[in-house]
């Protein structure tokens, strides 16, 4: 294992604990009190840090995703009339910044204490084909009201695109050998971005009304996931971006996830316009994670706050993913996890 890879633990007054490594900025473990006060680890991952190395496993568990989270059509972007060809690591498309995205990069540790961790990364011009030297900072703060606050900042010396998110896989049962069908999910969104059979947005902002995509009222993830709905067939489950009604207002929760079994609740607050919901459709039991558990399909859910997928090519006004010199990319994600405590 690289000797510069480190693990850092943040704790708060209620006993909530998060472990984060500077390799990929990954949330390795998140221990949350359940309704009985028992700490449960609610994220998937590995028990050994070197298992995150790409020669062991190529995974996104808990990672910072960059430069561009989600998919870019045909691995291409156009900036000021110049077209850049990116790696096509997801069929014909570029996924999560390419095959050597930020989830496989070693971040520098700028600051660390028991409540706060600051990581930084320099993504060089031409990194996975993206233009511009980008300097990024990711700040993790664990508060005593049980908020894990993840704040992203980035600047560039040339026009580029950027879209950062955290790719934690949540199972609020605290037992990754169980599926997440029982989890209650609420999303404050009237619309979503439909995809084609290659998982690229069609450009439409479709209503959720009358479809399995409607989570405006809480319902179980398993309620409609196996219905014969074209979008679910394309995604092999939920793998879609919702157009958030919160529109960047991070004082309002955009989503709520609850496990009735443990009483643990995750509320998501974000400054981003969209959120990708992914129900671990491509896990198939071949990856052995913590405690020797084989991670199966539907064993976790990802709630990835973000710009809309393929925004540079779709030109959605509400989802500008371009970053220019002199500008600062700001993004913030807060997850409030409650279980068996008052906050």
How would you briefly describe this protein structure?
The protein is mainly β and 343 residues long. It has helices at residues 230-235, 311-314, and strands at residues 7-11, 17-21, 26-33, 39-41, 64-65, 71-72, 76-79, 82-85, 94-95, 108-112, 116-123, 134-142, 147-156, 160-161, 165-166, 184-187, 191-193, 206-207, 219-220, 239-243, 255-258, 265-270, 274-278, 302-306, 322-323, 329-338. Mean pLDDT is 94; it is low at 338-343.
Please tell me about this protein's structure.
The structure is a single chain. By secondary structure, the chain is mainly β. It has a single domain, classed as Beta-galactosidase, Chain A, domain 5. It has two helices and 26 strands. Strands 10-11-12-13-26-22-21-16-19 form a nine-stranded antiparallel beta sheet, with no helix packed on it. A five-stranded antiparallel beta sheet has the order 18-17-20-23-24, with no helix packed on it. Strand 1 and strand 2 form a beta hairpin. The radius of gyration is 19 Å and the shape is globular.
The spatial strand order of the largest sheet comes to 10-11-12-13-26-22-21-16-19
CATH architecture: Distorted Sandwich
Q: What is the string of helix and strand elements?
A: EEEEEEEEEEEEEEEEEEEHEEEEEHEE
Q: Sheet with the most strands?
A: 9 strands, antiparallel
The total strand number stands at 26
Shape: globular
Give the amount of beta strand, in percent.
25-35%
Helix content: under 10%
Q: Which consecutive residue ranges, at least 5 long each, have pLDDT under 50?
A: 338-343
Number of domains: 1
Distance between the termini: 39 Å
Question: What is the CATH class?
Answer: Mainly Beta
Give the radius of gyration.
19 Å
What CATH calls the topology is Beta-galactosidase, Chain A, domain 5
Q: How many helical stretches? A: 2
Q: Report the structural category.
A: mainly beta
């Amino acid at each position: 294992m690289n000797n510069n890879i480190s693990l850092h633990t943040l704790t708060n007054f209620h006993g909530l604990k998060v472990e984060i490594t500077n390799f990929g900025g990954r949330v390795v473990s998140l221990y949350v009190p359940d309704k009985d006060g028992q700490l449960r680890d609610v994220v998937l991952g590995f028990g050994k840090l070197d298992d995150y190395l790409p020669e062991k496993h190529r995974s996104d568990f808990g990672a910072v995703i960059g430069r561009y989270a989600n998919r870019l059509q045909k691995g291409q972007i156009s900036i000021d009339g110049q077209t850049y060809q990116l790696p096509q690591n997801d069929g014909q498309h570029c996924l999560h910044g390419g095959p050597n995205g930020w989830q496989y990069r070693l971040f520098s540790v700028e600051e660390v204490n028991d409540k706060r961790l600051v990581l930084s990364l320099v993504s060089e011009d031409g990194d996975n084909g993206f233009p511009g030297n980008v300097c990024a900072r990711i700040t993790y703060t664990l508060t005593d009201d049980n908020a894990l606050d993840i704040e992203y900042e980035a600047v560039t010396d040339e026009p580029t695109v950027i879209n950062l998110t955290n790719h934690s896989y949540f199972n609020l049962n605290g037992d990754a050998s169980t599926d997440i069908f029982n989890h209650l999910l609420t999303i404050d969104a009237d619309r979503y971005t439909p995809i084609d059979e290659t998982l690229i947005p069609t450009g439409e902002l479709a209503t959720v009304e009358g479809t399995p995509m409607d989570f405006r009222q809480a319902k179980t993830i398993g309620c409609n996931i196996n219905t014969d709905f074209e979008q679910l067939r394309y995604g092999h489950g939920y793998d879609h971006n919702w157009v958030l009604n919160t529109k960047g207002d991070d004082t309002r929760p955009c989503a709520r996830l609850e496990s009735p079994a443990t009483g643990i609740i995750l509320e998501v607050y974000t400054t981003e316009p969209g959120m990708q919901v992914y129900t671990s459709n491509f896990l198939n039991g071949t990856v052995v994670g913590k405690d020797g558990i084989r991670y199966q399909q539907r064993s976790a859910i990802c709630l990835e706050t973000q710009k809309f997928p393929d925004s540079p090519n779709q030109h959605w006004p509400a989802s500008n993913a371009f970053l220019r010199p002199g500008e600062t990319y700001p993004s913030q994600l807060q997850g409030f996890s409650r279980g068996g405590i008052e906050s």
